[in-house]
């Protein structure tokens, strides 16, 4: 199979829920990032053979968002697009899907990415089409409903949402509030330091947000980072479930963002004048119990390591999506890796707790951040892994092109 290059992974800044990016629909946000990717790489849009985009909270305002965004970005009409969804792992799945297309010769150049506008996730009803004889129509919040219905209740019982799954891990692995808050504070401090040092400047493409009066607002800085966060400030927050460990401060945020990259066959790089940032080495996905969905990275990474012969000692960087602090800590428990021994390799620039978790875009956001950090360190191997609502894990390995 052909070697697969990752070229110019970029992302928007991550918008806070209901804040600056709220006026932008998901498809328009995706189109802006896709346009920026084409501009930055200088690629002839006619050479793009597919646009694979992830979105977890899709709707009919922009069906098949990969195709919709490609058209909105001005790509030629004959460039096809598709949509993928593996919930939290959708953005990484889009990259893996694009890589397999290139490896097998189905395509030479593919755009892979993801988008989510959680601020614009709608309410809906399942009973209005055919009417109701009497009584009220129920409007569901798609954002919350997707978390509640992540598994068949008849088989696994009722799970109130992702917070419950995190508390299950805290109980199982004996993870206390103090440990969770310490990890969350570290995430915020890492993200704040990365922002102030300018680390994110290269990966973020400015996004224009229309306003009612005046010129568009430009967002080019992540909105969810709280530099003042400490263990002490987090300790004052109330748990989301009484007597629990999970709080708003040690959980991932819900956000708006888009991310994209080029996935290219090695033997076409010179022809297209493209320089790889990294090489795609492999990927794996597994299922796990929905009630402990956060442990999904353990099985996915084990499967990936068995396939590739790689181990933790071979890794320069490790990225876990930080759905919850207790989720990351439970995964590290299973791996036998104490957090204090990974301070220079694990989520070194923050992640979901600090930068945010715009579901379908998170895989691409992590990739853009991780691969540039890998390049700054002179190359090596980087692992990206994520838990997935409903009980899954996904993981992928990348080798820096500068190695």
From TrEMBL:
Keyword set includes Secreted: no
Keywords: Acyltransferase, Transferase
Protein name as catalogued: Probable acetyl-CoA acetyltransferase
Boundaries of every Thiolase N-terminal domain copy: 4-267
Coiled-coil parts of chain: none
Molecular functions (GO terms): acetyl-CoA C-acyltransferase activity
Family of this protein: Belongs to the thiolase-like superfamily. Thiolase family.
EC number(s) on file: 2.3.1.9
Annotated Thiolase C-terminal domain residues: 275-398
InterPro entries reported for this sequence: Thiolase, Thiolase-like, Thiolase_C, Thiolase_N
The organism's place on the tree of life at top rank: Bacteria
């Amino acid at each position: 199979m052909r070697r697969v290059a990752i070229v110019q992974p970029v992302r928007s800044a991550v918008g806070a829920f209901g804040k600056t990016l709220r006026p932008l629909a998901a498809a328009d946000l995706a189109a802006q990032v896709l346009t920026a990717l084409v501009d930055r790489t200088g690629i002839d849009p006619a050479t793009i053979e597919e646009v694979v985009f992830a979105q977890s909270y899709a709707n009919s305002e922009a069906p098949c968002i990969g195709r919709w965004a490609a058209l909105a970005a001005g790509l030629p009409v004959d460039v096809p697009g598709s949509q993928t969804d593996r919930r939290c792992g959708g953005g990484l799945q889009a990259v893996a899907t694009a890589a397999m297309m290139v490896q097998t010769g189905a395509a030479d150049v593919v755009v892979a990415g993801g988008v989510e506008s959680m601020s614009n996730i709608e309410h809906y009803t399942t009973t209005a089409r055919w009417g109701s004889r009497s009584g009220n129509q129920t409007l569901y919040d798609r954002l919350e409903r997707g978390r509640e219905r992540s598994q068949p209740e008849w088989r696994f019982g009722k799970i109130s949402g992702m917070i419950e799954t995190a508390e299950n891990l805290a109980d199982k692995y004996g993870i206390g509030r103090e440990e969770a808050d310490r990890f969350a504070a570290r995430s915020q401090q890492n993200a704040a330091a990365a922002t102030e040092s300018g680390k994110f400047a290269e990966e973020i493409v400015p996004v224009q947000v229309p306003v009612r009066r005046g010129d568009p607002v430009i967002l080019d800085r992540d909105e969810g980072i709280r530099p003042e966060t400490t263990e002490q400030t987090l300790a004052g927050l109330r748990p989301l479930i009484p007597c629990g460990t999970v709080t708003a401060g040690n959980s991932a945020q819900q956000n708006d963002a888009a991310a994209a990259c080029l996935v290219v066959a090695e033997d076409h790089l010179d022809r297209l004048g493209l320089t790889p940032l990294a090489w795609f080495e492999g990927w794996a996905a597994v299922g796990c119990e929905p009630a402990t969905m956060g442990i999904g990275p353990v099985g996915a990474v084990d499967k990936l390591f068995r396939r590739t012969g790689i181990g933790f000692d071979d890794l320069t960087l490790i990225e876990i999506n930080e759905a919850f602090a207790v989720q990351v800590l439970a995964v590290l428990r299973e791996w036998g890796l104490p957090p204090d021994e990974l301070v220079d390799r694990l989520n070194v620039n923050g992640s979901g707790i600090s930068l945010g978790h715009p579901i379908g875009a998170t895989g691409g956001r992590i990739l853009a951040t991780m691969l540039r950090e890998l390049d700054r360190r002179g190359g090596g191997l980087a692992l990206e892994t994520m838990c997935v609502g409903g009980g899954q894990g996904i993981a992928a390995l990348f080798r820096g092109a500068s190695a």
